[in-house]
Structure formats: C-alpha cells, structure tokens
C-alpha cells in the first residue's frame, strides 16, 4: 500500500517555498527607484520561505527528522513569522518615499524576534512541543508555547495595520504635493495592504476557532498566503515602480511673512499669468520655486483658501483649459488625447476621471453637447 507523504496543503506549502526562493533571488535583478526596496522585498520572500519550511517540519509527520532539526526549527520559524510584518512595512515605506533610508531605530523591529528566541531558549521549546500535544507537558511550558503561537500571529497583524496607516498617510501627502498621480497604483497598494490585514485577522480567527470549537481550518492560511505571495510579486513588478513618490517635509524651512491674501495673489499669478498648470508633472515644490514662495506656505494657502489639495487645485484649471478646447469649433480637428496633453494632463484615465468628477460628463459628451448648442 502506497503511503501518502504529502497532502494538498503540503503541496501548496512546497510551491510557496519554491516560489518564495525564486522571487527572493530574482529581486536583485529587477530595476527599482531605490535599491533598498528590492532587498527589503527579497527579505520578505525569504521570511515567507522560512516560515513555510517551519510549518512543514512541524506538522508533517512523514518527513525525516532528528533531534537537531526539531530543536532548531522554532529558532527560524518564529523569527521568520515575526519579520514578515517589519519587512512589509519597510518595503511600503521605501516605494512611497524617494528619500527613504534605513535608520538605526529600525533595529527595534528585531526586538520581538529576540524576545521570542529568548522564550524558546528558556523553556527549551522544540518542534514537538510546538504541536501543543498536552500529554505530559509542564503547565509553564504549555503556556509558553501557547504564547508563542499567539505572538507570531498577532504581531504581524499589528505591522500590517501600520503598513496600511503608512499608505493612508502617503495618500494624503502625494495628492497635496503633486499634480499628476498614478491613482491606480495607489488603489492596488491599498488593496494589497488590506488583504494582508485580512489574512492576519483570518489567521487569528482560525486560532480562536481551533481553541473554542476544535475546528481544523488552519490549513486555509497557506492557500491565502500563497495567493498573496503572487499578488505582492505582481504589484512589485507592474505597479510599485509607477507610484508617485513623496519625500519628507523639510521642517526647518522658514515660512514667509506674507499674509494669506498675498500668498493667494502670487499663487494665482502663477496660474493666470505663467499658466504653470500646463506643466504635466509639476509638483508643489516646483510650483513654489517658480512663484518665489516656500512650498509649505503654498500648500497651506491652497488648503485654507480653496479647501482642496494641490492635485485637485491644479487639475481644476487643467479641466477648464480642456473645456475651452472641447467647446471650440475651431478645435474639432483635435482628438481628446491631444486636448488632454495640451491641457497639462499626461494620463487619459486620470483626465477622464477628473473631468467627469467636475463636470458630470465625459470629455466626449461635453464636447458633443457644447458644440451642438453653438449651432
């Protein structure tokens, strides 16, 4: 009779391990805005591979084992689980900020790993004990093992939630400082971080169900993580490099002594006389330099006087410029693409989305309506 060494769950784990290793090795070959981004993502994939190897060694009873393997498994499994969160947080920070650098304070992210390794060492926890077979286990050791399982599930959730906070903060900043933003890439980043939060919540829920109702649903974790692994790689290749990055505000920059009316006067001069909104990729720093004001003052004035961010402010004038072209019979020879480029936009999807948001019509609908009314 043939012995089945690997079930479907094990196969998914093995595929995840192999794919994680391949993706980790391939990251240095990819082109990125910041080199640190690909190494952080590579580290994330390595942590997934080590965590999955640990799960396989802990729960597959058919794999050849030894006292050494049983003793070492917790020492790489638990840290690998705990490092996923910090690595994802740092990766998200690196792809959203063009001045990102690792700091000494980032070493604090290693404290949970050091702590759990200390618990493993003090209580002599090995793979057999991690299975929580309560027969013959000292109550103190049982509580220590139980703590480790909860710790390696809850800690990533906290980090994933923090990653979402970084995305949210970045979202506000990027629209306050740029006139052209890749909104699709931001939406994907939101979905990805939310998906990781949901996966962590699901993992915690499964642990609760296992304790309360003895439901063996933990294997579904592996399927979800495998899907997220593929999604993260897809994002890193297709969207991450197209994110509009931001940089930290220069807090030492002095503010001008001009009042709000003077600030608005200079801002509107840049709009009406210099027509700076026609520059496709202009950001608040460039705009401020051209009108001779500190960019913190420009952001403040636009937000205070117009109740909108820089992105909305500039694109409102671009839409007005586009409306002028679309409503002019002498410009009927111009395509919508030509008009959006002449108006300062550089993306058809962004142009159509913002145009409809302000007018309630698509550019084509607006053109047909206005032209027909002039006949």
From TrEMBL:
<feature type="transmembrane region" description="Helical">
    <location>
        <begin position="187"/>
        <end position="211"/>
    </location>
</feature>
<keyword id="KW-1133">Transmembrane helix</keyword>
<keyword id="KW-0472">Membrane</keyword>
<keyword id="KW-0238">DNA-binding</keyword>
<dbReference type="InterPro" id="IPR018060">
    <property type="entry name" value="HTH_AraC"/>
</dbReference>
<keyword id="KW-0812">Transmembrane</keyword>
<keyword id="KW-0805">Transcription regulation</keyword>
<feature type="transmembrane region" description="Helical">
    <location>
        <begin position="39"/>
        <end position="59"/>
    </location>
</feature>
<protein>
    <submittedName>
        <fullName>Helix-turn-helix domain-containing protein</fullName>
    </submittedName>
</protein>
<feature type="transmembrane region" description="Helical">
    <location>
        <begin position="12"/>
        <end position="30"/>
    </location>
</feature>
<feature type="transmembrane region" description="Helical">
    <location>
        <begin position="107"/>
        <end position="127"/>
    </location>
</feature>
<feature type="transmembrane region" description="Helical">
    <location>
        <begin position="223"/>
        <end position="240"/>
    </location>
</feature>
<keyword id="KW-0804">Transcription</keyword>
<dbReference type="InterPro" id="IPR009057">
    <property type="entry name" value="Homeodomain-like_sf"/>
</dbReference>
<dbReference type="InterPro" id="IPR018062">
    <property type="entry name" value="HTH_AraC-typ_CS"/>
</dbReference>
<feature type="domain" description="HTH araC/xylS-type">
    <location>
        <begin position="261"/>
        <end position="369"/>
    </location>
</feature>
<feature type="transmembrane region" description="Helical">
    <location>
        <begin position="75"/>
        <end position="95"/>
    </location>
</feature>
<dbReference type="InterPro" id="IPR020449">
    <property type="entry name" value="Tscrpt_reg_AraC-type_HTH"/>
</dbReference>
<feature type="transmembrane region" description="Helical">
    <location>
        <begin position="147"/>
        <end position="167"/>
    </location>
</feature>
<dbReference type="Pfam" id="PF12833">
    <property type="entry name" value="HTH_18"/>
</dbReference>
């Amino acid at each position: 009779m043939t012995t089945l060494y690997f079930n479907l769950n094990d196969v998914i784990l093995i595929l995840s391990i192999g794919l994680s290793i391949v993706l980790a090795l391939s990251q240095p070959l990819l082109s990125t805005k910041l080199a640190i981004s690909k190494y952080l993502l590579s580290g994330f994939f390595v942590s997934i591979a080590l965590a999955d190897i640990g799960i396989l060694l802990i729960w597959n009873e058919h794999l050849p084992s030894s006292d050494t393997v049983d003793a070492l498994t917790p020492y790489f499994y638990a840290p690998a689980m705990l490092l996923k969160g910090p690595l994802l947080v740092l990766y998200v920070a690196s792809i959203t900020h063009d001045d990102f650098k690792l700091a000494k304070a980032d070493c604090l992210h290693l404290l949970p790993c050091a702590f759990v390794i200390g618990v493993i060492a003090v209580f002599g926890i090995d793979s057999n004990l991690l299975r929580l077979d309560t027969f013959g286990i000292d109550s103190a050791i049982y509580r220590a093992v139980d703590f480790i399982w909860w710790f390696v599930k809850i800690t990533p959730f906290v980090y994933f939630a923090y990653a979402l906070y970084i995305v949210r903060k970045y979202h506000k900043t990027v629209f306050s400082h740029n006139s052209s933003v890749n909104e699709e890439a931001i939406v994907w980043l939101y979905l990805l971080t939310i998906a990781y939060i949901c996966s962590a919540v699901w993992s915690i829920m499964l642990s609760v169900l296992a304790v309360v109702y003895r439901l063996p649903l933990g294997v579904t974790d592996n399927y979800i993580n495998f899907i997220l692994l593929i999604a993260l790689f897809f994002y890193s290749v297709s969207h991450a490099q197209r994110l509009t990055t931001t940089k930290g505000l220069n807090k030492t920059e002095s503010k001008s002594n001009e009042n709000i009316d003077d600030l608005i006067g200079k801002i509107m001069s840049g709009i009406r006389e210099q027509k700076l909104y026609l520059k496709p990729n202009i950001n608040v720093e460039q705009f401020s330099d051209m009108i001779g004001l500190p960019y913190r003052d420009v952001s403040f004035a636009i937000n205070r006087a117009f109740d909108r961010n820089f992105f909305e402010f500039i694109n409102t004038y671009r839409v007005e410029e586009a409306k002028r072209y679309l409503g002019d019979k002498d410009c009927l020879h111009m395509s919508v693409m030509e008009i959006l480029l002449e108006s300062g936009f550089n993306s058809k999807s962004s142009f159509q989305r913002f145009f409809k948001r302000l007018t309630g019509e698509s550019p084509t609908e607006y053109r047909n309506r206005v032209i027909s009314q002039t006949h």
